[in-house]
Amino acid sequence: MADVGGVGNTPLLDLSELAPEGVKLFAKAEWYNPGGSVKDRAGWRIVSDALKRGDLGRGKMLLDATSGNTGIAYAWICARLGLKLTLAVPGTVNAHRRSILEAYGAELLFTSPLEGTDGAIREARLIAAAEPGKYYYADQYNNESNWRAHYETTAEEIFAQTRGGVTHFVAGLGTSGTFVGTGRRLRELRRDVKLFSVEPDAALHGLEGLKHMATAVVPGIYDRSLADERLEVATEDAQAAARKLARERGLLLGPSGAAALAAALRVARRAAEDGRPAAVVTIFPDSGERYLGERYWIK
């Protein structure tokens, strides 16, 4: 099997000047992955594990549901490995992501814009059930390889990059793979680390890539007991955080990364009130360059 290379070992940005005095704030810049997002980690692990088991290849196509970034990860990996790919995507997928997916040669099946990612999941399940011999349904929301990718890479990188000093970890919930895998391993490496999951504050939101767990199809890999606290972020607060970081630090964040930043700043303020040294680490899943057509940038 070919080695795609370049996945992981992303920089840890020091954003401590945004945090209160005495608290360090860091973020993993996941747009340094080859496909431009954190989803390259899970995508590569899912594909490579399926190939090793013999579930993929030899005429079988990869099938999954995605709102964008995992699809891009699958698309460039499949192009590199000579595999065929079919993706069920919500009709709301932005034009930039659609162009990337099509450039890599992915077959796109558009589902109802009103049903979001959950509608794409239902469509992918129907396709897989109808033609099991044609497709390997990766099912990123229930695939153990998803969280294991972060258990074995993201967490280890964070621990090494902070020299074991991470005290708080903050990450958004989409498939939940990043939070679950990274959180599980960090807790093994440092028992007193505090884990905070992040999700939108309402069912109807503008935070692409994140799930409002109370009203969404809950991923099978999600471990509800893992977080010390669940933090909810309003779309407007995330958008404000994105604009602030762009204009004061020259960094462009996607909606899920902006929500993670807003939540991490909340955690940092609490840590400062406690008066103990703290190192808060969060994940920036992708760059804001894929979202520059969104209106919130011009406010």
Please summarize what this structure is.
Helix content is 39%, strand content 18%. The chain has helices at 39-53, 69-81, 95-103, 116-130, 144-161, 177-189, 235-249, 255-274, and strands spanning 12-14, 23-29, 61-65, 85-90, 107-111, 135-137, 168-172, 194-200, 229-233, 278-284.
Commentary on this structure:
- The chain is an alpha/beta fold.
- It has two domains: 12-35 and 144-298, 3-Layer(aba) Sandwich (Rossmann fold); 39-137, Rossmann fold (3-Layer(aba) Sandwich).
- Helices cover 39% and strands 18% of the residues.
- It is built from eight helices and ten strands.
- The protein has helices at residues 39-53, 69-81, 95-103, 116-130, 144-161, 177-189, 235-249, 255-274, and strands spanning 12-14, 23-29, 61-65, 85-90, 107-111, 135-137, 168-172, 194-200, 229-233, 278-284.
- The strands form two sheets. A six-stranded mixed β-sheet has the order 1-2-10-7-8-9. A four-stranded parallel β-sheet has the order 5-4-3-6, with helices on both faces.
- Helix 5 packs across helix 6 (177-189) and helix 7 (235-249) crosses helix 8 (255-274).
- The mean pLDDT is 94.
